[in-house]
Amino acid sequence: MGMSDSAATTVEARPARREEPERQLFRGAQSLDSVTDKISRIVEGPPPRWWWPAFGFSLSLLGSGVFAAAYLISTGVGVWGLNQPVGWAFDITNFVFWVGIGHAGTLISAILLLFRQKWRTSINRFAEAMTLFAVACAGIFPLIHVGRVWMMWFLAPVPNSNAIWQNFRSPLLWDVFAVSTYALVSLMFWYLGLIPDLATIRDRSRSRLRRIIYGLLAIGWRGSANHWRHYETAVYFLAALSTPLVLSVHTVVSFDFAVSVIPGWHATVFPPYFVAGAIFSGFAMVLTLMIPCRQLYGLQDLVTARHLDMMSRVMLATSLMVGYAYGIEFFTAWYSGNLYEQYVFTNRALGSYGWAFWIMVVCNVLVPQTLWNRKLRVNPWALFTVSVLVNVGMWFERFVIIVTSLHRDFLPSSWGMFVPTWVDVVQLIGSFGLFFTLLLLFLRFLPIIAMFEVKTVLPNSQHLPAANEDAPSGGQTQTPDPQQVIGLLARFPTAATLTEAVSTLRQQGYRRMEAFSPFPIHGLSRKLGLGRSPLPPLVFAAGVLGLLLPLGGILYLNVVEYPLITAGKPYAAVQPIAPILFEVMILLAALATVGGLLMLTGLPYYGHPLLKMDAFRRVSSDGFFLLLDARDERFDLAETKLALDAVGALQPRPVEAEQ
Amino acid sequence: MNRQQQSEWVSRQPYGFWPELRKLAVDLPGADAPTRDDTSAIPINRRSAMGILAASAALAGLPGCRRPDIELRPYTKMPEFVVPGMSLFYATTLTCGGGALPVLVETHEGRPTKVEGHPQYSPTQGASDAIAQATILQLYDPDRLRQVRRGGITSSWNEFDTFVETHFAELLQKGGQGLRILSDATASPALKHLRRHMRQSAPEAQWHVYEPLRYGYAEQAARRLFGKTLRARSDFGKPDVIVSLDADFLGRADQDAIANSRAFASRRTPAATNGPEMNRLYVVEPAPTLSGGMADHRLRLAAHAIPGFALALAAELRLFGPDWGWDADAVRGFDRLVRDKASSDTTGPAWAREIAADLLSHRGRSLVVAGPRQPPLVHALVQLMNVALGNVSHGVRYVEVPDEDTGSIEELAEDAAADRVNTLIIVGGNPAYDAPADLTFAARLAKIPNTIRLGLYEDETAQLCQWRLPAAHTFESWGDAETDDGYYLPVQPMIAPLYNGRSTLTVLAQLLSYETNGEYDIVRRAFEEQSPSLQNAGTFDRWLHDGLARREPLWFVPQLSGQAASGLRDLLQAYEPVTPAAAGREICFQADSSVFDGRFANLGWLQEMPDPITKLTWDNAALISADTASALKLATGDVVRLSLGERSVEAPVLIQPGHADHSITLPLGYGRSVAGRVGKSVGFNAYVLRTSRHLAFAAGVLVEPLGSRHQFAFTQQHDRLEHRDLAREQTIAQFVQRAAQAEDATRHDTHSEESRLIDPPRLDGRHQWGMVIDLSRCVGCSACVVACQSENNIPVVGKNEVARGRAMHWIRVDRYYRGPESDPEIIHEPLACVHCENAPCETVCPVNAAVHSPEGLNLQVYNRCVGTRYCSNNCPYKVRRFNWFDYNQRPLDQLWLGPLANFGMAETLKMQKNPDVTVRMRGVMEKCTYCVQRIERGKAGAKLASPSSSDYTLHDGQVVPACAQACPAQAIVFGDLSDVTSRVSQQKRDARRFDLLAELGTKPRTSYLTRIRNPNPRLAAALRPFTKDDGHE
């Protein structure tokens, strides 16, 4: 539709209070339409000139990684530099590194959402996408690092010909549950967030193909108040579920080490230490990618210095936590009086891999201290440098933890060294190839900033001044067939007028009506007489089921069906399976949330008559609409039209059912 | 081992990937029976089938998901004794270097798979060593010579027979003029029978014997003193004090090492109540050996200085005093000579004085031994000391060996140079490689008109001979052997010759026109000649069945002959005293711990067995001390050129803690230029420097650094204990002092069992398996390592993989140094999976591949294992081994080629595999199982022998894992802990018991007994020893 020729609904950024420029979430005049336009154009226009070479380069890196993996799988894990005693090195380092990176997205989306941090809206989509891609990269390594990849399905709790089930007490199995739950929930969370924006792209698209593809992806989203009512509940539930989940994932990853007996691994500080490190590295990666992106796509107005400032504060805080953890490990080793612990830490700092340790300390603890300086915090390129160094440092952190602990453990006779082979290195590079390939595809085809969420935090977005753009359009003058009319659709200039109109019409006795908006309008659904969403009990029930099902199942397997003695642990011990109970609980609750949302909103549904109306397309960018249902007792085509005119509707028009 | 290529000798059509897929034959245990010679069945085993199945399932959907065709065929005629699935043992004898070891060979459906020591042979009682264990691999070595070859062209036995008929008829007609036979040392009466026949049928012919590591110095000394050729038989179980002058009686170079280890170790534990007291060992030697590692006091001394030390010791013992029956003149002469020539200046007088005092206070209960490479003077002095101290017929006995009228290799070389040799038959040995360098034997060999070589391999010697005949392996031939102490032993075949070989007896009988119905017949005749003197021989069949018979040897009680004084004076006068520093750097030759004199170079098990001291695999090295290295500015791995006269060799240097200064030890047996695929071009050839004048050691070697580096492959890279209480050791005084606290050791078993919220699972199997390893007994010989490899189908991974830290041995012998680098103590600690009751590996396995059995075994379920390696990471003992590559199916030099590498195992190597043990594929973890297959076999046997399978008795000792069975020192005891009377239970209650890393709460089933040393307090005080707390430099 003619966006460019329509007079934009402009809003002067009206400072709520006097703010320094770097405290602003937006720069310049932003309107609903300008936000939509700015972000959608990235998807709609041709790719920028740098995109193709960058994509080609990433793809070639990915190709090298695929080659390395094929070589590894066909030949044996021996092509890596692993040995006895260093059974894990680059593989698990990369895994933990990528899982850590994958923490920022969900953290920004979920935790900051729960804390109502408005600054998250400009960066959450990007961070979530990054999370998913990082988790995809992470997932590859545990898969290919095993000796017999083709037997990996043994890790899935499905019956098999050996009639033995998994060892639910193994941290590796906890990993399977935690990482796959995390990947699934993050994917659902991300996709849920994308739906209104996909609808925007759908509604703006001019080519049929795009309309079909984005239409399919948008699952028939119409932005109705009922949609938004369930949607917001669902998103908050997913956020609430993701918050402990995101903390649990790196906790469980840290259990891979903390549960072992190996000095340097066996430490109770690991869960918080790893979580802090994950957030640290995740934020660093968001910054590493966001800073060039905002430059390349000219998004400085939406991702402002304020955002950079807030991100770097989180980084600084987590850097201090990580630094504290480094220190406390040494203290514990000294204080414990344990010979093996003491040796491992002395060796870590001063031994053969001391260089890696010092890279880690410099990058993760010393360099981020520069962020105390506010000027650096808002200087994109300084921040970029810091975040790249933090990424390097965090990779080395995992390398140091894994390799220096393994290479010199209890018996000096079995001490050894790890030296990476070219396959190790190519495998690491290849994972970056996968990451960047996915990221570039995301930049190209999906809205990289959550438009509808940005709109909710635009100053004055909830009460815009009237716009007069929607002049009577000539094409709509045909008298409709009253039998085919299913309702009257009216557009309102602002969210406030829409809300007002709803109240007035309800006072007049209208009951069957539906309001549509580009972002959720608080209080609207109450005014429409819609109650609370029935999602909560559903999610609760699913969560309880998710707790009891594995509890009962695993105890049955361990105690009755096939009791196996592992490490002398009691058959009925619940402690070692607690992580699995937790993850399954979150998983089922999250599935119930999304399933419930779809059920309650009746989506996906592609056949709604409104979706056929050109006028309705603005609903996903800046249009506020009210549909009065023809089935309402008070409905009368002419009379209702008058009533609508009276409440300030622009151009009420009848909606006809499908032919 | 090289499991290179689908062996080309199986002349089947080469097959690719798809034909294999079509024909999925699976070799179930038993399907490999000798009757299976159907060439249409393409041999694919379970693992290759699995790989193909997996690959095709992944590539092409599920075409591979069908049951493989299995053909089971009955025997049409049942072979005697064979019960499919049950193993059958044959008694036979291994011979090497003139010694003999009776063994039992386990066979499965006609395939020999494992060698065990003969349990009824009293000196060893079932023990064996690494080389004996590896003999089975030699039998199946795909690199063995497979056809008769003439001048490099494939020939046949028929052609050879024709040649013999014409050529030898002529030769024998001339009385054998120009006919020479060269063999290695043999202990076979049957062969001696043939030799006697040769004297008659071809009186002009001559038989030469060459054994590279036999020096004959002890025999020379005995002839000087006693006028007879005597061989000493020492019993290391009897003396209380043992002094070794460069004698590594526990090392492989000693023929009786197994018996010595057993006897010696039996006296290494502190007597509990009224047993014999613990023995004390003094060792004086240049390079640390197994014996040196066991010594209570070890004096490092260059080989050149040892005669001086022997003289000093003799002087302290007042050996030349009037008490010993010397006439006064002789005494005066000796005194002067000894004063002139004794040199204890390098060591201080304390050593000789205190050792002498200790010997004198243990008269009749002591033993002095000299190393075979020491000159006759040292042997003469040692023989005198034993006589003087009254040790003869207690710790040492002498047996008279008849002089054999055989020639030496020097004479042969001389004759060859003078064209006096027309036809030379070489059986055994490898003189072109290991003859003294000054003989230029290879060049002279090439000049001889007719040369015939009978050997297992096409080696350096065979390459220079016209006729190269494949020899039958010991396990393929008939023969016999006798030992110095009177055992008469059979050699019997248990498999038809795999490679078309003929035995030494057959070939020599044919060449010498000996009328016989075959080798069996010769052995029968030899047996009949022997049997009257044998105490319990019975019939020939009985002898074969028992595998041994004995007669009491004629012990010789030595008395000084009339010429003794003059003989000794000659030796003394000929001796030029030197100090090591003055003599310049010396080189000492010694047998390699793995490949001996080089004859076992193609056996991957031995190549990969780490040297007990250096922990070096797949290599030899020039061993030097740290001080010598710093004087020469050398580091481990630096390559040097060692020159002696005009001869030189390039060798990498290895700094050996405890090595004598000014001395360089060169292990022999490496640097083979023509060996199989395994042994070729491994290490350097030290024979190049070895001349007939300097067979043992030589001074004045020039060392020239070349600036290049050599990559070694060690299985252990860190030698220090880092103050960790891992390999415990006490002196006997400390032990006695602390014995009062002994109850503590037993109490710590049961701690923290109470007050649990939920009971842990009970290990409630009928048997509770456990093991105790006595560090006091373990000499570090590594027989267990190879025995385990043989029993459990453990692959060889090659030097490159070992260097990467990927050796696969399930049991390893950790060797730690304590004390200063220049002169540390050595302690060996064998370590396999300790079967923790609370096993850290089990809890972390995601797929339940590591689980515990109710009998206390830590099980590894291969078909569950996906290979996360988490178990290995979490194993505090680091005893788990991962199949990084398909070591069984890919050639070791093609591991990195992945799918492009050749696939499959040589047919013969498949035959070696123990059918009771799964052959592991790549990607799975493996580790010691306590030989679960033997446990189950033992239980099955006990159940069969009892009326009901639920009520059976399994006697202590009925189940013995391969390591414990092989152990010559009886350091490993295995058994049922639920039986309080079992040996293992008793040892668990020993005050010396400790559990490795017990503080981790793993509750290992394998325990250790603290090593006890018995130092001489007076010598220790005189030496002001370093502190014992694991002293770092």
- Tell me the number of strands of chain B: 41
Number of helices of chain B: 34
Named at the architecture level, the CATH assignment of the largest domain in chain B is 2-Layer Sandwich
Portion in strands of chain A: under 5%
CATH class division of the largest domain in chain B: Alpha Beta
The helix tally of chain A amounts to: 21
Global structural class of chain B: alpha/beta
- Could you tell me the mean pLDDT of chain B? 84
- Order of strands in the sheet with most strands of chain B: 5-4-16-15-14-6-7
Largest contact between chains: A-B, 67 and 83 residues
Structural class of chain A: mainly alpha
Q: Regions of chain A with pLDDT < 50 over 5+ consecutive residues? A: 1-19, 462-477
Shape of chain B: globular
What is the strand content of chain B?
15-25%
CATH topology of the largest domain in chain B: Alpha-Beta Plaits
Question: How many strands appear in the DSSP assignment of chain A?
Answer: 4
Rg over alpha carbons of chain B:
29 Å
Main sheet characteristics of chain B: 7 strands, mixed
Walkthrough of the structure:
The complex is a heterodimer of chains A (659) and B (1033). Chain A contains 21 helices and 4 strands. Chain A has helices at residues 32-44, 51-75, 90-101, 103-114, 124-144, 171-204, 208-217, 225-258, 270-296, 305-336, 339-350, 354-366, 374-377, 380-407, 422-445, 451-457, 495-507, 524-527, 535-561, 578-601, 637-646, and strands at 485-492, 513-516, 624-629, 650-656. Chain A starts with 31 loop residues before the first helix and ends with a strand. With 1033 residues, chain B is of the alpha/beta class. In chain B, the strands form 13 sheets. A 7-stranded mixed β-sheet of chain B has the order 5-4-16-15-14-6-7, with helices on both faces. Residues 1-44, 49-65 and 1026-1033 of chain B have low confidence and may be disordered. Chains A and B meet through helix 2, helix 6 and helix 11 of A and helix 2, strand 32, helix 28, strand 34 and helix 29 of B.
